[in-house]
Amino acid sequence: MNHRFGLQWAAGLMLCCGAALATAQTVELDTPQGKLLGTASEAVHSFKGIPFAEPPTGERRWQPPGPAPSWEGGREADSFGPNCIQSPYPENSFFYRPARISSEDCLYLNVWTGGESGDDLPVMVWIHGGALTRGSGAIDVYDGHRLAEKDVVLVTINYRLGPLGYFAHPELIAESENFAAGNYGILDQIQALNWVQDNIRAFGGDPDNVTIFGESAGAWSVHLLTASPLAAGLFDKVIAQSGARLDPRRELDRQTAAGPSAASSGEQLAQALGADSLRELRAMPAQALHEAAMQAGFNTDGIVDGWVLPEQPYAQFVAGRQNPVPVLLGFNKDEGTTLGAAANAPDTAQAYEERIRSQYGSLAEDFLEVYPADDPRQSTLDAYRDMAFGWNMVTWANLNRFVDQPAWLYYFSHHPPGPSSDALGAYHAAEIAYAFNNAHLLQGGAREVDIELADLMSDYWVNFARNGNPNGDALPQWEPYTNAERHYMRFDGGATPGMDLLPGHWGLMDRIMDRRRQ
């Protein structure tokens, strides 16, 4: 592919913000915002730390994001921006990573591209996971180089987290022209998608062919963007890996099955922090506010506010009122092994059965038939997987028929390498390295089977982003999921088509979730 970016090979390069020594090859790109100075390689160029919104600091804390300003001269774009304010995972966590600099000024994104201005490459926008309290677009396994080599433009983004991203309060509702509050992280994601519409052509991307994808809380976010009328027209396809929000959600101003209203929870947090007003809350140091909120057990999640999220997502999707796009959805076989689910398993079959009978009442016999008492640990893990992940993904695939759009379902059961491979199995987030074709970054050291599976899975993901259909030459045929023909693709050292994933599980989960909604 030809590249008409202006390459700057000089060893020393004077940048707009001061003198800097360019130790790597630098690529220069004109965008509607201004000139960017990124990093050049033979096939892919990267541009990091690009502001997509006005910094949400000072009086802009807990405000919808405004567009980022433009700049004069060249802006360095060879390193990631800071993470949004968060507390790192504890060092004994499976998901622990060394801390990066975090800041309230954190609304930056990153682009990898092998294209040039004027190309029409499909665009893939990744939304990171981390329970809406941790993470960023700068994590190594999200590196977009290898996906960009497959002729897509890859974008990773940050968004506000924890109480800075999902906090509602009566004073915030009162100052909002939409009488809404609490979904600032989602609004950041929408602003990033608006940035893509305005700027991605400069990177060789097609703003009319955008796929959003994410894992865990990133997949929650993808699901809620599919529900939000504010995101209509900003994306064309959806990939969600292990996450959706079809179980009851908190509402802004009334109690639901999900718990107290978000506004009352915000008032309680303000009282716990000793703040008598919104002004005092905005004056608190961001990191101290975040840590105090987390210690107080603040619930971070999307809120049904009547504006960003107009209604309960389940009711919306059943009625076919979501944004109508093709979807590729799935989950992993052993989601709970790295999320603490096994620690909750009773020690004996008798204790397990007693717990199930106490929790599920008239549904206990059916529950014990699907998740039997003879192996309490495995049944606890399987039930956790299906309740937290599987039911959401299968149900979403099923409900996509109400907008007359296709759905493809997958089941990831491959064990990544590592000393605890058998114990962890296909753990939560295990599939990410394969979807990004980054198996070489696996901590256990990639085997040939991992390299091949990553190349295969990423082909399906890229094909879907390009055409709205994951299939392609030399790939096993992946049939769409329908309620009548429940096709899925199993990824376990290869790609194996299947039919009727985990039969009997979803009817039980339907009844459990229906009881929760009531």
Task: Give the arrangement of secondary structure elements.
Elements: E1 6-8, E2 12-15, E3 18-21, E4 26-30, E5 35-40, E6 45-51, E7 74-76, E8 83-84, E9 102-103, E10 108-113, E11 121-127, H1 145-148, E12 153-157, H2 162-165, H3 170-175, H4 184-199, E13 205-215, H5 217-227, E14 237-241, H6 262-272, H7 278-283, H8 286-295, H9 313-318, E15 327-332, H10 349-360, H11 364-370, H12 376-399, E16 407-412, H13 421-424, H14 432-435, H15 448-467, E17 487-491, E18 495-499, H16 505-517
Parallel strand pairs: 5-7, 8-9, 11-12, 11-13, 13-14, 14-15, 15-16, 16-17
Antiparallel strand pairs: 1-4, 2-3, 4-5, 5-6, 6-10, 10-12, 17-18
Helix pairs in contact: 10-11, 12-16
Describe the structure.
It is a single chain. This protein is an alpha/beta fold and 518 residues long. Helix content is 31%, strand content 18%. Strands 1, 4, 5, 6, 7, 10, 11, 12, 13, 14, 15, 16, 17 and 18 form a 14-stranded mixed beta sheet that branches. Strands 2-3 form a two-stranded antiparallel ribbon. The chain has a two-stranded parallel sheet with strand order 8-9. A hairpin with a 4-residue loop joins strand 5 and strand 6. The relative contact order is 0.10.
Jot down its keywords:
518 residues; alpha/beta; Rossmann fold; two-stranded antiparallel ribbon; 16 helices; 31% helix; globular; disordered N terminus
What is the structure about, briefly put?
This protein has 518 residues and is an alpha/beta fold.
Mean pLDDT comes to: 93
Strand content: 15-25%
Name of the top-level CATH class: Alpha Beta
What name goes with the CATH superfamily?
A: Alpha/Beta hydrolase fold, catalytic domain
State the helical fraction. Answer: 25-40%
Contiguous low-pLDDT stretches (5 residues minimum) are: 1-23
Q: Which secondary-structure class do the elements indicate? A: alpha/beta
Morphology call: globular
Number of strands: 18
Query: Can you count the helices?
Result: 16
CATH architecture group name: 3-Layer(aba) Sandwich
Radius of gyration: 23 Å
Tally of distinct domains? 1
CATH topology category name: Rossmann fold
Determine the N-to-C terminus distance.
57 Å
For the biggest sheet, the summary is: 14 strands, mixed
